[in-house]
Amino acid sequence: MSGVLVVTGASRGIGAACARLGAARGFRVCVNYHSSPDRAEAVVAAIEASGGEALAVAGDMGREDDIVALFETVDRELGPLTALINNAGTAGSIGRLDEVAADDIHTVFDLNLIGPFLCAREAVRRMSSRHGGQGGVIVNITSAAAKLGGAGQYLHYAASKAGLEAFCHGLGLEVATEGIRVVGIRPGMIDTEMHARMGMPDRLAELTPAVPMARAGTAEEVAETALWLIGDGASYVTATTIEVTGGR
Ligand code: NAP
Description:
Layout: E1 3-7, H1 13-24, E2 27-33, H2 37-49, E3 53-58, H3 64-77, E4 81-86, H4 102-127, E5 136-141, H5 145-148, H6 155-174, E6 180-187, H7 194-197, H8 203-207, H9 219-230, E7 240-244
Parallel strand pairs: 1-2, 1-4, 2-3, 4-5, 5-6, 6-7
The structure holds NADP nicotinamide-adenine-dinucleotide phosphate.
């Protein structure tokens, strides 16, 4: 594979795994980060050490001006966009609906839903045949929470991810004849820092017995699915979301 891949939230976890695998498969990769420049530079350094090409680009993917600036940087520094992985996301604060603050709901929806809308808009403007583009693929990282609902923990997170799946389906239909495929990945319990950062460091150990495969997934397993979806092997797959949940 060749071309340019943007991965939002790629300084660690699933995003970093997607960036590393994308580079290994031949993409020039934009490694977006928000608050962890050292971690993003470490991802870039690892890619370069393996003979790949990558660029760390700062930006809050919940903010339109940062999103527009990121895609302009990519145009300038890496070349025409081929694929986008909307990965950056947050669960926000944990709690029941009757405890949640409006600001937390806005933060979660800004990053998990509005941001992917705007990133996808920038991608469509560059990749759609309607705009003279060569086509491409948009992958949205959703969550099993979209199906499970997040009761007692994070209704806002679950609802934002369910919205992202609806967006994935609708945008996939909208651009189906313009050379762009739009697909979602719905991960289950994946072993990243996200759980500890949510204030639940034991979450994986507590919940994996309920996973049919009896283990958490890895960021690399999600990345493998993302890169398969981007590649020609998935050329007839669009407007849908695929589960990577170990059966949960
Ligand atoms: P993670 O380890 O917490 O990593 C989150 C990434 O998002 C970091 O690179 C972080 O970068 C970046 N980020 C946070 N706020 C950002 C912002 N405003 N703008 C740009 N980047 C931002 O999480 P993860 O587990 O890899 O999760 C990645 C995606 O998978 C998320 O969308 C998450 O909802 C989804 N997911 C995860 C699981 C799971 O079990 N882990 C399950 C289902 C879905 P900085 O540190 O630089 O800010």
